[in-house]
Amino acid sequence: MLPAKGPNESSWWKDCVRASKNADISDDLKKGARTVLEIIDSGAFRTTDTAADSTHQIEAIVWPANFTVRFACVHCKRCVNNIRRLTGSQCPRKMVWTKFRKGQRDILVPLAAQAPSARQRAASRALDILGLQQDGAVDQNP
Ligand SMILES: [Zn+2]
Q1: CA 17 – ligand 1 centroid, Å
Q2: What is the CA radius of gyration of the chain?
Q3: Could you read off the pLDDT of 109-122 as tens digits, one per residue?
């Protein structure tokens, strides 16, 4: 999923793609090139995002425990039942670790580890959006 314009037209982008596949260069360089591609692919550098920095970027997710809809901000990873709790507050633009998040992780991780099903996939997606699958998320628990 490339951005609509920009990196895919530039030579460094092609260099990155080539480097990530080139068997003749070191693994470290390849890994670095792949990391750059993943970051761009993730939309972290999306230049079309003109929303103010203090605005939550909200995604609707299916909460696998009871199949209700919850709302999560992709930046600060807050996850709430009522979307007004996000639209009515400012986004700190960084993940904030709380006991509430730990509780969410404790619910989602076992569900995501189950055999593939609608519930398992919903749990996996929620973990992904909430940034709870990333290495180190646990370590941020103060
Ligand atoms: Zn936010």
Answers
A1: 31
A2: 18
A3: 999 999 999 999 99
| pLDDT band at residue 47 using 50, 70 and 90 as cut-offs | very low
Question: Residue 134: left if φ>0, alpha if ψ -120 to 50, beta else—which one?
Answer: beta
Q: How confident is the model at residue 53 (pLDDT cuts 50, 70, 90)?
A: confident
Q: How far is the CA of 84 from the centre of ligand 1 (A)?
A: 12
Distance separating alpha carbons of residues 115 and 21, to the nearest angstrom: 33
**Neighbour-count burial of 107, counting CB atoms closer than 10 A to its CB (0-12 exposed, 13-18 middle, 19+ buried):** middle
The CA 45 to ligand 1 mean position distance, Å, reads 16
Contacts of 68 (CB under 8 A, 6+ apart): 62, 81
Cα distance between residue 105 and residue 92, in whole Å: 21
Q: Measure 88 CA to ligand 1 centroid, in angstroms.
A: 11
Q: How far is the CA of 53 from the centre of ligand 1 (A)?
A: 9
CA 96/CA 100 separation, integer angstroms: 10
- The domain ranges of the chain are 7-41, 58-140
